[in-house]
Amino acid sequence: MAINTNYDNSYMNTYTDGTKVTNPNSELGKDQFLQLLVTQLENQDPLNPMDDKEFIAQMAQFSALEQMQNLNESFSAVKAYSLLGKTVTASVDSNGSSSTVTGKVDSVKFDGSNLYLEINGSDVSLDSVTSVSD
């Protein structure tokens, strides 16, 4: 007997209102967590409502998630600013080809979601740095 391993998981990538989930890492972000909580509240049984202790615990988890994300952004910024004036080597992918950029970090740029180091007049993502030297 053959076992079918081709599953259609497209239903797992949509909210109840039909909008698509656009989180490429498949991690539960704060927006998805809040949407899940609202959906849970909308669909609870009126004769058996959610226990207030459960609701408070979920809100605490939401708050903790948000604070961890804020800390992560702060640590990334500190890491980027600590590289100012240092010589770094980074692996940069552009148009399907990989190249190595080496130079002194002249400035740090933040575009709202990503940090970039300016090296020899070009912006390099902080995540692409492979080595650092004084």
UniProtKB/TrEMBL annotation:
<comment type="similarity">
    <text>Belongs to the FlgD family.</text>
</comment>
<protein>
    <submittedName>
        <fullName>Flagellar hook capping protein</fullName>
    </submittedName>
</protein>
<dbReference type="InterPro" id="IPR025963">
    <property type="entry name" value="FLgD_Tudor"/>
</dbReference>
<keyword id="KW-0282">Flagellum</keyword>
<feature type="domain" description="FlgD Tudor-like">
    <location>
        <begin position="77"/>
        <end position="130"/>
    </location>
</feature>
<dbReference type="GO" id="GO:0044781">
    <property type="term" value="P:bacterial-type flagellum organization"/>
</dbReference>
<keyword id="KW-1005">Bacterial flagellum biogenesis</keyword>
<dbReference type="InterPro" id="IPR005648">
    <property type="entry name" value="FlgD"/>
</dbReference>
<dbReference type="Pfam" id="PF03963">
    <property type="entry name" value="FlgD"/>
</dbReference>
<dbReference type="Pfam" id="PF13861">
    <property type="entry name" value="FLgD_tudor"/>
</dbReference>
<keyword id="KW-0969">Cilium</keyword>
<keyword id="KW-0966">Cell projection</keyword>
